[in-house]
């Protein structure tokens, strides 16, 4: 299926999904790049910076899909909106904070994103299915990395464990937003873009996580996500980050690289 | 933390070559870091990640640099002689390569 044959409402819903996913990856990539130079050990510094770059790469691929679908320029979509124009989940509104917080957020995000990619793998919109196939290959490695860190912090003694538990408790409600705030996902299911609605993806994700959380004695999710999962109101922390990542472009929007 | 030595293969058929080393608390994180250090730019098709402690290290001069002349164990003398005979034979047959003709 190509962009031309999509009905207008399906196309709008698909554009909403692409923007949400792209903004999730983009904002997470920028938060995690904040560790460059100050990660716990040199090796992890290189690793987290590389993971962050991967997310920016995924965002770039998704912004390009959106530009093909709706017209426009991928860079302009990525950098040219005011903060309230971003549609990332509330999970990505929190600042970098400490290492346990970063691990907790990435663990929640990467596992939710994997569940989301699973239901997009057979998407009838071929350009998206191709990008998803590539993303899944890289995200497999991200997942392994974050599972490894989650276990080490959970079993790493009093301080790592208490920091991890505190981070999970703070992040859980907003993590539910990663698989929420997508409008008209039922239209995308009908059109064969999504294999099932987001609410079902979220249930599957949580069911899959439960055994690991139980084994490690870590807190689980609240019953429901907060209201306003994907903006337009974002935190002051995000506004600070936005200021950082748009700074160069705003200084000369017409510059050619 | 312990040191891991990393070997990498650049492309199928190429030999495994020493890439460098890294510090990691265990083999699992060592493999993640090896991937980031020596594979994140798609420059490797295979990595070996080896705890340095597992490497048998030989540097005893009595084993590796014995004091007597060992030049007779090198193939150099033999090959020099063969090359000279080959050059003579070619010259007789008039099939010497250009660079050998110039030398004479």
Walk me through what this model shows.
- The complex is a heterodimer of chains A (257) and B (104).
- In chain A, 65% of the residues lie in helices and 0% in strands.
- By secondary structure, chain A is an all-alpha fold.
- Chain A has one domain (7-221, 232-240): Up-down Bundle (Ferritin), CATH 1.20.1260.
- In chain A, α4 (99-118) crosses α8 (198-216).
- With 104 residues, chain B is α+β, with helices and mostly antiparallel strands.
- Helices cover 38% and strands 21% of the residues of chain B.
- Chain B has four helices and three strands, in the order ββαβααα.
- Chain B has a three-stranded antiparallel β-sheet with strand order 2-1-3, covered by helices on one side.
- The longest helix of chain B is centred in the last third of the chain and has 18 residues, at 76-93.
Summed up:
With 257 residues, chain A is mainly α. Chain A has ten helices and no strands.
Beta-strand content bin of chain A: under 5%
Order of helices and strands of chain A: HHHHHHHHHH
What is the class of the largest domain in chain B in the CATH system? Alpha Beta
Largest sheet of chain B: 3 strands, antiparallel
Q: Which series of helices and strands of chain B comes N to C?
A: EEHEHHH
The CATH architecture of chain A can be named as Up-down Bundle
What is the CA-CA span between the terminal residues of chain B? 64 Å
Q: Strand count, sense and closure of the main sheet of chain A? A: none
Report the radius of gyration of chain B as a whole number of Å. 24 Å
| CA-based gyration radius of chain A | 18 Å
The structure class of chain B reads: alpha+beta
Q: Which class of secondary structure composition applies to the elements of chain A?
A: mainly alpha
The total of beta strands of chain B comes to 3
Could you give the order of strands across the largest sheet of chain B?
A: 2-1-3
Q: Total number of helical segments of chain A?
A: 10
Number of domains of chain A: 1
Rounded mean pLDDT of chain B is 88
Mean pLDDT of chain A: 95
């Amino acid at each position: 299926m190509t962009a031309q044959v999509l009905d207008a409402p399906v196309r709008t819903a698909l554009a909403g999904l692409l923007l949400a996913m792209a903004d999730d990856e983009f904002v997470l990539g920028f938060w995690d790049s904040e560790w460059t130079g100050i990660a716990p050990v040199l090796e992890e510094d290189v690793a987290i910076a590389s993971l962050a770059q991967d997310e920016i790469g995924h965002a770039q691929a998704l912004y390009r899909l959106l530009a093909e679908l709706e017209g426009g320029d991928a860079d302009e979509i990525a950098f040219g909106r005011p903060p309230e124009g971003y549609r990332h989940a509330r999970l990505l509104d929190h600042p970098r904070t400490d290492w346990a917080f970063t691990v907790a957020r990435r663990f929640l995000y990467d596992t939710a994103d994997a569940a989301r990619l699973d239901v997009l793998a057979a998407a009838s919109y071929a350009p998206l299915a191709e990008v998803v196939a590539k993303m899944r290959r890289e995200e497999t490695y991200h997942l392994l990395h974050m599972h490894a860190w989650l276990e080490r912090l959970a079993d790493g003694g009093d301080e790592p464990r208490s920091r991890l538990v505190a981070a999970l408790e703070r992040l859980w409600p907003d993590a539910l937003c990663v698989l929420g705030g997508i409008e008209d996902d039922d239209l995308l299911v009908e059109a064969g873009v999504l294999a099932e609605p987001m609410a079902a993806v979220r249930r599957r994700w949580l069911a899959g996580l439960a055994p690991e959380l139980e084994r490690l004695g870590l807190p689980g999710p609240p019953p429901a996500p907060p209201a306003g999962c994907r903006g337009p109101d974002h935190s002051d922390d995000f506004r600070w980050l936005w200021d950082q990542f748009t700074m160069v472009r705003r200084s000369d929007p017409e510059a050619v690289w | 933390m312990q040191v891991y030595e990393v070997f990498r293969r650049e492309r199928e058929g190429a030999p495994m070559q020493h890439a460098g080393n890294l510090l990691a608390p265990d083999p699992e994180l060592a493999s993640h870091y090896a991937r980031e250090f020596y594979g994140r730019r798609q420059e490797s098709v295979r990595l070996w990640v080896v705890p340095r402690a597992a490497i048998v290290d030989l540097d005893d001069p009595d084993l590796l640099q014995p004091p007597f002349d060992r030049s007779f164990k090198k193939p150099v003398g033999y090959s020099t002689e063969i090359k000279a005979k080959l050059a003579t034979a070619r010259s007789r047959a008039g099939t010497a390569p250009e660079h050998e003709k110039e030398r004479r």
